[in-house]
């Protein structure tokens, strides 16, 4: 029997409508327009598409801000100066530096320079540390979107065996931390497989919940999946003939899994919805910590 589809596009639409209502309420209550700045360095074609999608989703939700497009030749010092200016700009509540950065730029130093209170990507060590401690503030958008999709779809994670394929800082590692948290969408028993794992297929086959974030087109076939498992495909690649495919071989896995995310229309739209949601959270937190009127009253 074919797996039921976990429809990220439909849920993302609902979340974006809620974020738009939140943005309007924030403006009505405080006069504040939430602001997101996405920094894109260089001309990576996939990044250009992702950034354009983020920009139009933010605009549609009533979130202000812009994309800063910097040349590939931007130096580390110039990029850090940009971040310092955005950190100091009271109209900017969320900062996202699109990854990967061009060769020669130090990704880690760039991420550490972003104010942890504006780090809507959740990549700053302070936010990562809070997640690891079970007290999350900003959570990376893709794993957060996967968790929202699982909860909204009624997928039980508590006491289940979850296997994450991939250990990236953007997806695999924070996904594993989220699945281990106490509470809804968590309480799973988690195994992370990576490039040094012998026989990841055998481990994947033990999973009730399989999260695939390996970055290899259609690498996971039916033989990797326990019958009835829930499978989440985080990959996105341009396949032969221009068709978009994931890390999962959709047609064969759909025959064994009970539920499966499509590509496109699964995890991707959820990532953008969570970025918008994190941006509203950042604007509210910054406003609560420092309402603009408190200075003039002091
Ligand atoms: N590149 C691919 N995914 C992401 C993401 O979630 N955030 C950033 N900053 N870069 C990415």
Explain what the structure shows.
There is one protein chain. The chain has 298 residues and is α/β, with parallel strands linked by helices. The protein has 2 domains: 30-123, Leucine Dehydrogenase, chain A, domain 1 (Rossmann fold); 140-268, Rossmann fold (3-Layer(aba) Sandwich), CATH 3.40.50.720. Helix content is 42%, strand content 15%. The protein contains 11 helices and 11 strands. It has helices spanning 8-30, 45-60, 76-88, 107-113, 125-132, 141-152, 172-180, 200-204, 250-253, 267-289, 292-297, and strands at 4-5, 35-41, 64-70, 94-97, 161-165, 189-193, 209-212, 230-233, 237-238, 244-245, 259-260. Strands 1-11-8-7-5-6 form a 6-stranded parallel sheet. The protein has a 3-stranded parallel sheet with strand order 3-2-4, sandwiched between helices. Helix 2 links the parallel strand 2 and strand 3. The model has no long low-confidence stretch (mean pLDDT 96).
């Amino acid at each position: 029997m074919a797996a039921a589809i976990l429809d990220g596009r439909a849920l993302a639409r609902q979340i974006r409508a809620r974020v738009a209502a939140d943005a309007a309420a924030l403006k009505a209550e405080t006069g504040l327009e939430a602001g997101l700045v996405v920094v894109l360095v260089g001309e990576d074609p996939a990044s250009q598409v992702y950034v354009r999608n983020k920009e139009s989703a933010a605009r549609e939700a009533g979130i202000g801000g812009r994309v800063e497009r910097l040349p590939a030749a931007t130096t580390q010092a110039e990029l850090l100066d940009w971040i310092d200016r955005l950190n100091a700009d009271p109209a900017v509540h969320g900062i996202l530096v699109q990854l990967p950065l061009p060769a020669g730029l130090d990704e880690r130093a760039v991420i550490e320079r972003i104010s942890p209170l504006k780090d809507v990507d959740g990549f700053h060590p302070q936010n990562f540390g809070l997640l690891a401690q079970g007290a999350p503030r900003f959570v990376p958008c893709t794993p957060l979107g996967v968790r929202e999709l699982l909860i909204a779809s009624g997928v039980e994670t508590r006491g289940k065996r979850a296997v994450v394929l991939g250990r990236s800082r953007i997806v695999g590692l924070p996904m594993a931390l989220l699945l281990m948290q106490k509470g809804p969408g968590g309480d799973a028993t988690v195994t992370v497989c990576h490039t040094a794992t012998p026989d990841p297929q055998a481990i994947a086959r033990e999973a009730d919940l399989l999260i695939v974030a390996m970055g290899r087109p259609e690498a996971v076939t039916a033989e990797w999946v326990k019958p009835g498992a829930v499978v989440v495909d985080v990959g996105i690649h341009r396949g032969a003939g221009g068709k978009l495919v994931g890390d999962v071989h959709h047609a064969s896995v759909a025959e064994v899994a009970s539920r499966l995310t499509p590509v496109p229309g699964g995890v991707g739209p959820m990532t953008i919805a969570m970025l918008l949601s994190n941006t509203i959270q950042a604007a509210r937190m910054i406003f609560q910590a420092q309402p603009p009127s408190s200075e003039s009253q002091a």
